[in-house]
TrEMBL record:
Gene3D superfamilies cross-referenced by the UniProt entry: Classic Zinc Finger
Keyword match Zinc-finger: yes
Record text on subunit structure and interactions: Associates with pre-60S ribosomal particles; released from the pre-60S particle very early in the cytoplasm.
Organism ancestry: Eukaryota, Metazoa, Ecdysozoa, Arthropoda, Hexapoda
Protein name: Zinc finger protein 593 homolog
TM spans (from-to): none
Length: 168
């Protein structure tokens, strides 16, 4: 009997491939640490013949090596890089956050930072460095309304007094 349907199913190989250990990239919180402390060292790496471009053209934000400056500059203009900058804007999740979530302490809104692409070799020579500044966000309207809401403690007492006054 012929096959009832074509055997064209490709399976989940493409999904499994993505989770392979060898295709695992550096985690965002580690990259965040790189940006905070290790940027000077990562921008001026020693020549490593094993790495693409001898480890001279590295994007800290995406944790990838490029073969030459042209490729690196082209990468800075791509969607993957811009998406990564956006993802790095929010402060990484920490152990403290998880403890707060488990009931030790109260929730703290993760801070947003201003992310800029790392300086080029030339800009670096001119003294430009990677810096991660916290953006101070204005309170959200809903929160503002809450904080400005009248407190009822005092007024309630006044109200009570007002009610009592004519009776006595
Ligand atoms: Zn990048």
């Amino acid at each position: 009997m012929p096959y009832a349907r074509k055997k064209m199913h490709s399976g989940d190989t493409h999904l499994r491939r993505r989770w392979r250990l060898r295709s695992r990239k550096r985690d965002l919180d580690l990259i965040d640490k790189d940006l905070q402390t290790g940027s000077d060292q990562l921008l001026n790496q020693d020549v490593d013949l094993e790495k693409p471009g001898f480890a001279q053209f590295y994007c800290i934000h995406c944790a990838t090596y490029y073969i030459n400056d042209r490729a690196l500059q082209d990468h800075f203009r791509t969607k993957v890089h811009k998406r990564r900058l956006k993802a790095l804007e929010v402060e990484p999740y920490t152990v403290e956050d998880s403890l707060r979530a488990a009931g030790q302490g109260s929730f703290v809104q993760p801070q947003k930072r201003k992310m800029e692409t790392q300086p080029s070799k030339q800009e670096y020579a001119e003294g430009k460095r990677v810096k991660v500044d916290v953006v101070i966000e204005e309170e959200k309207p809903a929160k503002q309304n809450l904080s400005k809401a009248p407190k009822y403690d005092g007024k309630f007492k006044q109200l009570l007094d007002g009610l009592k006054a004519p009776a006595t």
